[in-house]
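May I ask you to review the protein record following this short note?
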Amino acid sequence: MRHRQTDGSVDLAQLRTFLAVYRAGSLTAGATQVGLSQPTVTTQIQTLERRLGPLFERLPRGVTPTAAAHDLAARVANPLDALESVVGDSPQDDTPEPPVLLGGPAELLAALTLPALAPLISQGIRFTIATGLADDLLTDLRLGKLDLVLSTIRPRGRTVLADPLADEEFVLVAAPQVAAKVDIDRLCGNDFTGVPLISYAADLPILRRYWRHVFDTRLEAEPALVIPDLRAVLAAVVSGAGISVLPRYLCARELDAGSIVTLLDPEDSPINTVYLARRVGGSARPHIERVRTQLLEAAEIWRACVH
C-alpha cells in the first residue's frame, strides 16, 4: 500500500477512514473515530469508490457495506490494526486508554460479570457499562458504540465474532407456601387458577420457552405481574407473589436457602448459551483484550454456577 493519491493509487488514510466507516456503520460515526470532519470523510470515501467501485449503500440512517466493502475490510483490517497497535504502543504516547465499553443483560452483568472484572478495575482499567436487549446491544457493537457484548443470542453476520461462555439453565420456581398449592398437571394444561404468573415481559418469552420445551405445549395465560428485570421477578417470587421461570445462576442462593423451590426438575431443562461478542478486526487495545481474556477465564467458574 502506497500513501499517495497523485497517480490514482489507494491512499493509506483513505483505507483507515474506510475501515472506520465500515465498522461504525455511518459516515458521521466513522468521522468521529478517525478525528476528521464528515465532509472530509465523505470525500475520502468517494475518492476510494472511484478507484475500487461502490463500497457503501447510503441509507436514511447510516450506510450498509457492499460485497466489495466486505472483501476490502477482510483484507485491510488486520494490517491496519497491527499498524495502529504499533503506533498506540509508542512510549511517547502516554494518553490513558479510554474506558472499555461493555454491554449485556443487567442481571448477568450484576450477578456474574462485574465480580469477575473487579480485579481489573483495581488495576486501572475503566469501564462504561450498557444494559439492554441483545439485538440492540449487538447493533451498537457493530456500530462501534460498544467494544464487547455479552449476548444471550448467537450473533450473526461476518462483522462480529463470538465465543460461547456458559449455558443458562432455566428453572420453574415458587416460594414454598406457593409451591404447596401448585398442581403441575394443571399447569401443563394451562390452568392457572389461583397461581399468578410473574414475567419479564408481557409476551411471556422465558415462560413460553419453558412450557414448550418441558411440557411440549404452548403457554396460554395472562401474567399477573410484568417487570423487565429478572432480579425483581426473583424478589416477587421470594415474597410469594406467584411463580416464574428464572436462570438458575440468578436464584441459586435462594434455592440453597430454601426461600424458593423448584416446582419441577426435568432431566432436560431448557438452556440458553451466553456469548462474548466482539467486532471483526476491532481496535487492538490492550485493555479490551485483557477484559476478554478475563471473561473467558471466568467462564469456567460460571459454568459451575449456572448448572
Notes: The domain at 12-88 is CATH 1.10.10.10 (Arc Repressor Mutant, subunit A). The first helix runs from residue 12 to 24. Confidence is low (pLDDT under 50) at residues 1-7, 89-93.
